[in-house]
Write a structure and sequence with these properties.
Structural class: alpha/beta
Strand content: 15-25%
Low-confidence stretches: none
Number of helices: 11
Largest sheet: 7 strands, mixed
Number of domains: 1
Strand order of the largest sheet: 6-5-4-7-8-11-10
CATH class: Alpha Beta
Shape: globular
Helix content: 40-55%
CATH architecture: 3-Layer(aba) Sandwich
Order of helices and strands: HHEEEHHEHEHEEHEHHEHEEH
CATH superfamily: Vaccinia Virus protein VP39
Bound molecules: zinc ion
């Protein structure tokens, strides 16, 4: 398959990203800095004119400008699956994704289950799609699963298997007094529009003594493997994390890392416990941000 064929399939979708993305975050979503971002790439892996910037103070990578929440809603309902299908040159839809998620869930269960201090009775899968991952873990743990997801079609599949479903975005979800023993944010964090707000919300939804699993696409690892930042940048990911920036995000929002893993596809997974919220080492982050910018420039 040639690059030209891929480009032609993507062009045939007629999606004009450059004309849509106009939202400029006023401050860095991790450290809050204004006017500290440096531009390091201007194309994404699909060829769209996506400007990728890195915060000089903390190293957080993000698209600027980016799509608004409403534009992302349209993107996910109309463009996303056809786009990744065109990029990979094979059909990717709700059905094929379920097969991939079963493999992912089996690997996650083998890693995660021995690390849990006690068997969780309740599981919340944030951005849990059709509920494949939640149902695999719930069956292995004999726990009750809840799936929170913005897609009604995907939630309908989860609901049909008897799981509790909650429609909507985690950013808007008010759990009240409710909490869960195990909270999952699987292959989702890079798609969020508010990292800090979401992690703070996850902290409130986690029971005392509970655990959270979060995985990131580690851009340091992708950069090492591909040698080109443009291969790591894609319009479906507003934010780009590394091990240092993810650890800083967890510290700021009151989580302690209790275990982690790196999978072959560049996903770095973290098992988190509730801890005190604190300030990360900003000087060390600034130094690793400078290293990252030097590596991509
Ligand atoms: Zn920053």
């Amino acid at each position: 398959m040639t690059r030209t064929m891929t480009n032609e399939r993507i062009a045939a979708l007629g999606y004009d990203y450059g004309a849509q993305a106009a939202l400029r975050p006023a401050e860095c979503n991790l450290c809050g800095a204004r006017e500290h971002a440096v531009e390091v790439a201007e194309r994404d892996r699909y060829g769209y004119p996506a400007t990728f910037v890195v915060c000089r103070r903390c190293g957080l990578g993000y698209l600027c400008p980016q799509l608004s929440a409403t534009q992302y809603e349209h993107f996910y309902s109309e463009i996303y699956r056809p786009l990744v299908s065109a990029y990979h040159g094979r059909r990717i839809d709700a059905e094929t994704v379920q097969v991939e998620q079963r493999d992912y869930a089996a690997g996650l269960a083998n890693f995660l289950l021995p690390l849990l201090p006690s068997p969780p009775r309740t599981i919340l899968d944030v951005g849990g799609s059709t509920g494949v991952v939640a149902s695999v873990l719930a069956a292995r743990l004999n726990a009750r699963a809840t799936v929170l997801d913005p897609s009604p079609e995907e939630l309908a599949v989860a609901g049909a298997t008897g799981m509790e479903t909650i429609p909507g975005l985690v950013e808007d979800f008010d759990p009240g007094e409710r909490s869960w023993d195990l909270v999952l944010l699987c292959q989702t964090i890079d798609h969020l529009l508010d990292l800090r707000g979401t992690l703070a919300a996850l902290r409130r939804m986690t029971a005392v003594g509970g655990r959270v699993f979060v995985d990131i696409v580690d851009v340091d690892v992708l950069l090492d493997r591909t040698g080109h930042i443009e291969r790591a940048v894609k319009i479906d990911h507003p934010y780009y994390l590394t091990r240092p920036t993810a650890a800083a995000l967890f510290t700021l929002t009151g989580f302690t890392i209790v275990a982690e893993r790196l999978t072959d596809d560049g996903h770095r997974g973290f098992v988190l416990a509730r801890g005190p919220a604190g300030e990360p080492n900003w000087l060390a982050l600034e130094a690793s941000a400078a290293q990252f910018v030097a590596a991509v420039s």
